[in-house]
Amino acid sequence: xxxxxxxxxxxxxxxxxxxxxxxxxxxxxxxxxxxxxxxxxxxxxxxxxxxxxxxxxxxxxxxxxxxxxxxxxxxxxxxxxxxxxxxxxxxxxxxxxxxxxxxxxxxxxxxxxxxxxxxxxxxxxxxxxxxxxxxxxxxxxxxxxxxxxxxxxxxxxxxxxxxxxxxxxxxxxxxxxxxxxxxxxxxxxxxxxxxxxxxxxxxxxxxxxxxxxxxxxxxxxxxxxxxxxxxxxxxxxxxxxxxxxxxxxxxxxxxxxxxxxxxxxxxxxxxxxxxxxxxxxxxxxxxxxxxxxxxxxxxxxxxxxxxxxxxxxxxxxxxxxxxxxxxxxxxxxxxxxxxxxxxxxxxxxxxxxxxxxxxxxxxxxxxxxxxxxxxxxxxxxxxxxxxxxxxxxxxxxxxxxxxxxxxxxxxxxxxxxxxxxxxxxxxxxxxxxxxxxxxxxxxxxxxxxxxxxxxxxxxxxxxxxxxxxxxxxxxxxxxxxxxxxxxxxxxxxxxxxxxxxxxxxxxxxxxxxxxxxxxxxxxxxxxxxxxxxxxxxxxxxxxxxxxxxxxxxxxxxxxxxxxxxxxxxxxx
Length: 572
Fold this sequence. Notes:
CATH architecture of the largest domain: 3-Layer(aba) Sandwich
Helix content: 40-55%
CATH class of the largest domain: Alpha Beta
Number of strands: 14
């Protein structure tokens, strides 16, 4: 379609005196309205801002980043925020994701306004402001008009009563006050909330290593029986502390890596009163980092009211490597693995091999190596997926043989077993991991995923809620697992909430988009479901649902058929 050239019109500029027409809709920006004939539709401000921005660039492909910078200036929002605005805008315009006449999604680029854009007089056949001049009314019809108004008023009162007495909307799932698997809070079970350490004066490349120090401290403390350990973002520990029974503690700190020195300031406080229990400053050579970590754990345990056996002390002090260069390579690899892309996974694999070359007995590096091959199978990054999965199993078993006392080794074995659809074996491996670390949030999350795969989504929700309680700032995968369970429970509202949060954290999570599309279709919102299908094809232009399901570890027959049927109905 052609578009008449026109000067840009800002979202705040009055359209009442400067008429803007998009297709057969008149856009009234001041009132956040679009009008067509006798039909008036109110838009949310963000939807109007997107529409006006696209109208300023008619027929051009506008990138998602440009739209987000324009509509949410100076604010960091999830990619899903724009998705929801576009869905609402299409719905208001009466547009279709599959056969658009207004907004066209351009794969891996953005959006294009394909309807005609005109400013000034109305297009032929359309009355200005969407209305023709009203005809004068006859006085004989006034009694009828009064009757209509009276009836309409009664209807409004009735609708108001129905609206007021409607059931309250469901809220997002509350995290339970007690856990599973022996994790129920007790007065004699202290809870320690470890905040992410603040990085001071970050130098290039400093972030991954300094963040790893706090993560290792969480892992070390989690090995102590009778202690609940929670990883929390800086500043969120106080809000989370109330979900645990006293005694509860908050451990915070700052860390700085400067040249060959490592400086830490740690503070342990009573989470309820805020009273400081212990603080200390450490300034050591970077080469002494492992000795420093051992000392940190020992000093914290001295203050906490918990008895530590000699065996636990030895287990905490037994690190997977004492080779600093190997550890640095490992930390870099772990950071690369956070980005679920083939290139980053290949880079991580090379770094794990470098770490192993520096320390051939580095069990955690072998476990990481196994995960690169497991993801290659799961996400289709290798031409020979079966071979990749076999390699993943080989390296996971190597890690477990080297360090049978390492929870992470058992977790990786469980993950690989899950991909091989050996769910019973996977659950046994997770039992082993949780015996070694009862606060292992990832183990509960993987357990939750497996329970859905075998047809127990209700138990899956319980386990995932516990995982979120132990790791409240979890990434995309936790919310995918939760949304997947609610989807199979038929709770479309809770599923939509969880899956949207998963996509906020990782817009490229293909599985989350598949379930969100199926969930929307199941809820009857077909246009929004089709929009998600467009996004799926944007992420994976040659997406093959049959091949995806063939390698997917969902083994429950009814669940598998339900997902297959919905994918087929959507034309995916």
